[in-house]
Amino acid sequence: MHTYRTHTCGELRSAHVGETVRLSGWVHRKRDHGGLLFIDLRDHYGITQCVIEPDNKIFAAVEAVRAESVITVTGPVVARTDDTVNEDLPTGHVEVRIGEWEMQSSADELPLPVFGDQEYPEETRLRYRFLDLRRERIHHNIVLRSQVISSIRRRMTEAGFMEFQTPILTASSPEGARDFLVPSRLHPGKFYALPQAPQQFKQLIMVAGFDRYFQIAPCFRDEDARADRSPGEFYQLDLEMSFVTQEDVFQTMEPVLHGLFDEFAGERIVSPAPFPRIPFAESMAKYGSDKPDLRNPIEMTDVSETFRGSGFKVFAGMLEKNEKAQVWAIPAATGGSRAFCDRMNNWAQSEGQPGLGYIFFRDGEGAGPVAKNIGEERTLALRDQLGLKDGDAVFFVAGEPKSFVQFAGAARQKIGTELDLCEKDTFRFCWIVDFPMFEYDEAEKKIDFSHNPFSMPQGGMEALETQDPLDILAYQYDIVCNGVELSSGAIRNHLPEIMLKAFSIAGYEASAVESEFSGMLNALRYGAPPHGGFAPGVDRIVMLLAGEENLREVTLFPMNQQAEDLMMGAPSEVSNAQMRELNIRVSLPPAEKNE
Questions:
Q1: Beta bridge partners of 94
Q2: pLDDT for residue 175
Q3: Is the C or the N end of the chain the one with fewer CB within 10 Å?
Q4: Measured at the alpha carbon of residue 322, what is the angle toward residues 290 and 299, in degrees to the nearest 5?
Q5: What is the pLDDT at residue 592?
Q6: In sequence order, which residues have a C-beta less than 8 Å from that of residue 52 and are 6 or more positions away?
Q7: CA–CA dist 169, 237 (Å, integer)
Q8: Which residues contact 575 (CB under 8 A, 6 or more apart)?
Q9: For residues 185 and 180, what is the distance between their CA atoms, to the nearest angstrom?
Q10: Helix (H) or strand (E) holding 500
Q11: Which residues of the chain register pLDDT less than 50?
């Protein structure tokens, strides 16, 4: 018999009754039922109930074992009686009668229990992450992550992509977030950077003549934590394709994404391909966001003409004084009660807004201050325009869209959630396309890139030379699922002269571009194919499939909100000898010097 186990703790079934087996695992929990001691023994694969009688000579020793100790038990498999069968466990029809046992590793008193799914402070969970990972939900999430990555690799290979690994030690980039820097021992005073993404390398792979590349790429960014972004490091499905249009990228990757989500969705519904293509401007106008949650059916509408010259002086005056001002309507099916409308108005005020105008419909007419001021004719025309009926409501936001669009999007989502209008158990994908190439930076009082400086402008050089920069669109796109941006991507600018022209519009001297991106520009001058790609976040994909709202729940060893690894004690100080070897010294800010 094997030293530790003949079977796993998730393997035994009724067919094993009568066999003598050996199991090893963690003591998940103990229960004393009328003298019989039951131990749920857990390993990676599942749980098996083990039982020992009081007259067994090893009973006292087994009874003293603490939860989460690692033990080995040997004994016969017996069938449970009908009234003790546990249908929730795959092994729930059998149990093991303990005849022999061995302690492999005793556990100290636990800082957090593994049994159950209680919430514990982040600091405790991350400091004792090895215990946290034993808990059923998060253990399942990490297994799911492994399965998702395996599925991605298989699907990408079947789609004709080849997996390559790009460098981890590379040059610092002036674009994007802050770099993590690594001092060079061999080149004093110089630093490597950990890659924020393999962007330039994957483009160079296309220039080198490989047609379809991918990797599960680690990326490093020194930025603040968010629920959907881990501090420090994350993983993405990085990919690039040659001789493709934007639509080619979509058509290639939609089957991969749909198939991946469908594989792990269970009973949940996944958007069929082709996914909707929504222009950026339309997405902002309808949903108040460039990452819309399409499970929410609410679409906003510009109703400025209804209020222009109306008796509702707040909106009418705004439209008269400012040609950029608009009034947007947010329809709220089933929200037609004063109580709900007042609740939304109070919510708007809690968000720092002056309020949220509304009309609700009953008895064939509109009610509320807005309806009274614009009159019956305009109110009923508005109702018909928006397809509303008795029992429904509509809310309004007004001003320059750029100043209220974010709030409008939040209000749309709040209304959809509060009224239970959103689809459940569904994954809704869409592509956001036609992003502006440039935007006006109010702080710097200059035109700058709005999304990705290495994208191909729609219209190429002619557009850059003849159009208002703020009217130029780019071949840039995002893939969005349930309001979560999984990735940005683009058809790349593969022509040096167009790249230099685009950067000059954004105020960059040619010499600066040549200096900062010399590797890329030099490569493009030796024959580069049209190419494009994107990089969906693996962590975010798993988070959605697991039904979690925080990346911490699908990451093995995440950092806390302050980018600290509490378990390993990172970041940490290093010895003076190490710093001398690297020719560096620490200069703390004044506040830290005085502590």
A1: 79
A2: 59
A3: C
A4: 30
A5: 55
A6: 36, 37, 39, 58, 59, 62, 97, 98
A7: 19
A8: none
A9: 16
A10: helix 496-505
A11: 594-595
Q: In 265-400, which ranges are continuous DSSP H helix?
A: 280-287, 304-307, 313-321, 338-350, 369-374, 376-386
Q: Cα(first)–Cα(last) distance of the chain, in Å?
A: 61
Structure tokens at 354: 């002056």
Instruction: State whether the Cα torsion 522-526-532-538 is positive or negative.
Output: negative
Give the angle subtended at the CA of 240 by the CAs of 238 and 241, to the nearest 5°. Answer: 155
32-42 in b/e burial notation, b at 16+ Cβ within 10 A? eeeeebebbbb
Q: Which two tokens stand for residue 165?
A: 């690994």
> Strand runs (DSSP E) across 142-283, as ranges?
162-163, 181-183, 191-193, 212-221, 232-242, 269-270, 277-279
User: Encoding tokens for residue 203?
Assistant: 């483009």
Under 8 Å between Cβ of 557 and 233: no
261-to-245, 256, 271, 481, 595 alpha-carbon distances in Å: 25, 9, 9, 11, 51
d(CA 342, CA 358): 9
**Residue showing tokens 């990797």:** 215
Q: Count Cβ neighbours within 10 Å for each residue of 350-380 and write b for 16 or more, e otherwise.
A: eeeeeebbbbbbeeeebbbebbebbeeebbe
The answer to whether the beta carbons of residues 50 and 14 sit under 8 Å apart is no
